[in-house]
Amino acid sequence: MDTNPIITELDAARIRELGSLLPDAGRGLRALNDLIEVTEEAEIVPGSRIPPDVVTIHSTAVFRDELAGTLHTVTLVYPHEVSITERRISVLAPVGRALLGRRVGDRAQLAVPGGAERRIRITELLYQPEASGELTS
Questions:
Q1: Does residue 32 sit within a domain?
Q2: What is the domain extent for residue 66?
Q3: Which of 1, 28, 55, 106 is at 20 to 30 A from 64, Cα to Cα?
Q4: Contact yes or no for 109/97 (Cβ under 8 A)
Q5: How many degrees, rounded to 5, is the angle at CA 48 between CA 43 and CA 53?
Q6: Is 134 contained in some domain?
Q7: Number of domains in the chain
Q8: Residue 61 included in any domain
Q9: Would you say 120 and 74 are in contact if contact means Cβ atoms under 8 Å apart?
């Protein structure tokens, strides 16, 4: 990873609240614990101070899978907002955790189901709610 994540105060608080919504065991809880670790290592800033090139919740980002050489456009969302057909991925998914708080140009390494390692690079941020003045979404 190129830089430490930067996460808005609102996103960090909502991520911590997810713990009360998930079952006490299983993959979801492990993913949440991993994500909470990310928030503990991240720089937490008010939404009004997040740089416009950082992926936040509800951002639409383009990333390159560096192994496959493919480009993917996704919107990062909370688990209850996931839609495969609309390309909305959960912040608890490996790619979602890798994108959160990263800047355009950053690389992130992630483990995908089955144990394989992938490396992605964020190439573009098409939409960020905070940059559009939406500080409470």
A1: yes
A2: 6-127
A3: 28
A4: no
A5: 65
A6: no
A7: 1
A8: yes
A9: no
Q: CA nearest 137: which of 47, 15, 16?
A: 47
Global pTM exceeds 0.90:
no
The per-residue pLDDT of the chain, averaged, comes to: 87
* Integer Cα distance of 122 and 131 in angstroms: 17
pLDDT, tens digit (0-9, with 9 covering 90-100), for 88-108:
999 988 899 899 999 999 999
Q: Which residues of 60-71 are buried (b: 16+ CB within 10 A; e: fewer)?
A: bbebbeeeeeee
pLDDT at residue 30 greater than cutoff 70: no
Question: Where would I find the beta strands (DSSP E) of 18-134?
Answer: 43-45, 60-65, 70-77, 88-90, 107-111, 117-127
Decide: residue 25, CB within 10 A, 0-12 exposed, 13-18 middle, 19+ buried: exposed
Give me the amino acid identity at 41.
Answer: E
Give me 38's structure tokens. Answer: 């990310």
Residue 137 lies in a domain: no
What CATH number corresponds to the domain at position 77? 3.10.50.30
Structure tokens at 63: 């990333």
The terminus-to-terminus CA distance of the chain in angstroms comes to 27
Q: Torsions phi, psi of 37, nearest 5?
A: -60, -40
